[in-house]
Amino acid sequence: MAAVRDSDKAGGPRPVQRLEVALPVPLPQTFTYLHLPGEADASRIVTPGDLVEVVFGRRRSVTGLVVAATEPAPPHDAAADAPGDGEPRRLRDITRVLPPEYRVDADRRRLADWMAGYYALPLGEVLPLFHPPNPGTAVGKGGRAAPVRYPTVDGEITSLTSAQAVAVTDGRRRLSERTFSAMLLHGVTGSGKTEVYLTLIAAALEAGRSALFLLPEIALTPQTLSRIAARFGDRVEAIHSGLSAGQRCRVHEHAAKGVTRVVVGPRSALFAPVRDLGLIVVDEEHETSYKQDEKPRYHARHAALVRGRECGALVVLGSATPDLESLANARAGRYGLWELPERLGAPMPTIDIVDVRGGASPDGLSPALDQALEETLARGEQAILFYNRRGFARSLQCSGCGAAAACPDCDIAVTYHVRPRRLLCHYCGHARPVPTACEACGHTTFLPSGAGTERIELHLQGRFPQARLLRLDRDTTSGRDSHHRILGAFARGEADILLGTQMVAKGHHFPGVSLVGVLAADDGLGIPDFRAAERSFQLLSQVAGRAGRTGAGRVLLQTWQPEHPVIVAAAAHDFAAFAATELELRRQLGYPPHRRLARIGIAARRQVDAAAAAGALAAALREGFAGTPVTLLGPAPAVFERLMDRYRFQILLKGDLSLSRKAWVAGCLRSLAASFPGVDAMLDIDPVSSY
Ligand SMILES: [Zn+2]
Ligand SMILES: [Zn+2]
């Protein structure tokens, strides 16, 4: 280094470094840039792991990862370059080197490499997960993100139950071994999983290590967040979408410097650069929001296990209704198992199945549920009503010809909303005024068909005019902090009924709720996806778990399928029975956890283009996989054949895909894009839905 500075002072040619940089572009290669270590704003010698900003094509500032760097050397060795074609080409200089807090090295680099290989993506395409947007623009000096304002839950647990103590003792032992292990914490709703997490976080901190705490959706879990904040104070920071880029940078830098020791957040928090990571908690590990549904399509639970493995950490996956793949892993001995089979302080609620065949009211409340609600309100207790459709009606049908208003871009019915009054597509957001006459036949009267939360709200207002009612769905939570406002008001007893979509099912602790009513318990069973039964069981168990946290609780499941095994198992709190039936079905059909899946989606504006590309791709893949254990299904039109003005086809691959096979498939998709302009193709490894 001394020699470099000397040559600078002498005014001679300045030594440069030649860098190989991975960039977030869909190309399977690195890009060469130059770096002059003497520059004032980039005085460091760059080494692999540094993040740099570069100009790429028309993009003026792209963040890239240095994967190789030469020693500083005189420019004639490095600056002019074009291997193979003889004609020298001027390489570009990087714009700047980011501070050391942004380096991607050690366990995070190994995680990035694993993700690139496993999900068959160029390294640069997973890179944006590892740094905040606009890295290096932290705002505020040391001032932290505002603490979470939310009433802390009364009756905090002070002593552990014997089941909790078993988990905590074993967890402490595993932490002290400083080697990777994975545990499934299977605890029924209200059994005190959070206390186990918090005790283990404290143990990790005592040992001088850090912890990551992943939650499915931070806006819906303010209570867990405030408990963590109350316990660990200024050693905790949260990462979430409500933070500005500058605030995210600050959390990132605090973690890298070791100032922040616990980072809490949704799946993106997994990549925080905390020092000496000892514990990763994945709460509600079965939640599908851990899977990112855009590129890079990774699963945070899987990635958490890899990061834990790479840094010798304990990974705890917690749920009342574990994902069947996690359960299979625990049974196969790949994870250890901790069980919390009993609720703290109260028995599990009783669950009654209400058969509504032949007698369903359009407003969705059976006489049994109506009566239970009346009694609950008369006793001054709270109730939760769950109906998983927002809007007023699922569709608006012409009473002349029966045509239902459809989205012009998605070919599916638009939902009728009353406040504000409009037709809305729940897939693409297309909105239009309610027509005055049918577009097909000119008839001027319409029938709202199928209920939504707005319609049920209207019914409840008429039926129970004295009751204070809150509605929680995507329409009532579009405003900032609206989740907090609604959940907080209900937790404080400022409302009698909370009506909503699956948002009401999350891990809320409402001490005053004695009744939970599920209006259409079989609603999710008809979804054409092999996981429909599992999702339904999880959702019913979660929402039922809100009842009777501090006393007797009652749950009514209204259903048109009272004998369905999922409904029966949910009503009996029988996870084991559900899992046994479902795992056997999966084995017969060759679905996860027995076989792995990969899904390829092909989409184009014109149906013929999508069909031709899908056919060509399927033929190439069939030939490539001939004689291997990989089975190919399709191509077939997707369940929703046209969304956002694009026709969609899909191909499913069943079986274990090696890294080289995945890379080969990714290569096939790239050549497909080249030979079929206007066609998009995407590869989804371990998809959470099969359509
Ligand atoms: Zn009509
Ligand atoms: Zn649409």
Summary, kept brief:
With 691 residues, the protein is of the alpha/beta class. The protein contains 17 helices and 27 strands. One zinc ion binds next to loops.
Give me some keywords for this one.
alpha/beta, 691 residues, Rossmann fold, 4 domains, 22% strand, seven-stranded parallel sheet, six-stranded parallel sheet, binds zinc ion
Report on this model:
The chain has 691 residues and is α/β, with parallel strands linked by helices. The protein has four domains: 2-104, no CATH class; 162-340, P-loop containing nucleotide triphosphate hydrolases (Rossmann fold, 3-Layer(aba) Sandwich); 350-390 and 452-586, Rossmann fold (3-Layer(aba) Sandwich); 597-685, Alpha-Beta Plaits (2-Layer Sandwich), CATH 3.30.70. The chain is 29% helix and 22% strand. Helix 4 runs parallel beside helix 5. It is globular and about 90 Å long. Residues 1-10, 78-87 and 144-157 have low confidence and may be disordered. It binds zinc ion (2 copies).
Mean pLDDT: 90
**What coarse outline follows from CA principal-axis ratios?**
globular
Bound molecules: zinc ion
Taking the sheet with the most strands, its summary is: 7 strands, parallel
Strand content: 15-25%
Q: Give the C-level CATH assignment of the largest domain.
A: Alpha Beta
Query: Radius of gyration, Cα only, in angstroms?
Result: 28 Å
Biggest sheet: strand arrangement:
8-9-7-10-11-6-12
What is the CATH architecture annotation of the largest domain? 3-Layer(aba) Sandwich
What's the number of helices? 17
Count of discrete domains: 4
Number of strands: 27
Distance between the termini: 57 Å
CATH superfamily of the largest domain, please? P-loop containing nucleotide triphosphate hydrolases
Portion of residues in helices? 25-40%
Give the uncertain stretches in residue-range form: 1-10, 78-87, 144-157
Per the CATH scheme, the topology name of the largest domain is Rossmann fold
| Strand-pairing-aware structural class | alpha/beta
